[in-house]
Prior knowledge:
Layout: H1 2-35, H2 37-45, H3 47-68, H4 71-81, H5 92-124, E1 140-147, E2 153-163, E3 170-180, E4 191-196, E5 206-213
Amino acid sequence: MAADEEKNENVEEKNDAPKEEAPAEDAPKEEAPAEEAPKDEAPAEEAPKDEAPAEGSDAGEAAGDDEELDWKAKARLERSRQPHEAGPQRSTEERVKERSESRKQAGKNRSAYRKKIRGKKAKGGEGTPPAERESVGRKVRQGMVVSSKGDKTITVRIDVARRHPVYEKIVRRSQTLHAHDERNEAGDGDFVQIVETRPISKTKRWRLTEILEKAK
Length: 216
């Protein structure tokens, strides 16, 4: 009986041994998902494709900014975007000469453009004629000379009689004006005519034009 039990134990050990090793052989199958990790990483590599719209949006914003610029700024921006080729080595005198020639050419272009614009304006029409200014004329007053003591200066009293707009009575008023008498012709008591003129002195803004009536 003891021998049979030993045989049975040996058989069980043999049968159990492969079963214990089997999980070890299956271990690579569990590691297979780890090898497939690069497949999961593929979307990460495709990230730049998703970033393309962002670059496109920046380009759209740049295009929108270009539309807001004026023609001179646009031309400068386009020149800056063009590839630049290095030119030949030149001396300072050659550069100055080239710069002066380019300025002369630019001046000729400007003058030609201005002549062209003037010609178009001349052909377009006469335009609005200048407004004619009507002079209100110089004021003329008549009065009596009350003083002729000053040299080439007379004092003329202007009497004004008007009807009051409310009380309808005659209201008499007077004012004195200093006038220029170039020849000292007027004397006290003369009835004269004076006209408004440019300022001749501090108080003289009038000039004698005619003696209407000499004093008796």
